[in-house]
Amino acid sequence: MENEGSKQTIRPIIITSKRSFSETQEALEATIPPLDLTFQTYIAEGDYVGARAALEALPPLNNFILPPRNFTGLLLTIGQSGQAIQYEIGNPLTAVTMIQHNLDVALHTPRRVLLRINGEKVELKVNALAPIVAKYQIPEVDAVAKKLDDELTKTLRRVAGYDTA
């Protein structure tokens, strides 16, 4: 039996920042707001119309975990140096528009974005979603994944000091 995971193509998107690590971190956290969990209150109350409205009011990209996973201290505990912070970025409504077609797509949302120092460079790195979900062969999922990859790349480029207009 062939492992289904072996069919996927991982295509990293790596953006070298023009900014320092801390400036890139500040820009990322200022650009991508924390996830507003109001929709969960509506769901808990059984108000799915209210939940949908709250989801539709969210910005296209949200930070799902606060605080983000800071690997810097963990690296130091094993005698390694370096700076790295992991963010989970996405939008619950965008995710559900994909997972309605195949629940396994939920394995790939939200997107994990790594802010790290790699040698002398500050980088933002994320694996492109479109090539990963292509294995499901669902045109609606492919279209949403491509749009999400484009939006996230554009946003990360802005955070890194490019395309500021």
UniProtKB/TrEMBL annotation:
Family matches, as InterPro entries: TT1751-like_sf
Protein name stated in the entry: DUF302 domain-containing protein
Organism: Xylaria multiplex
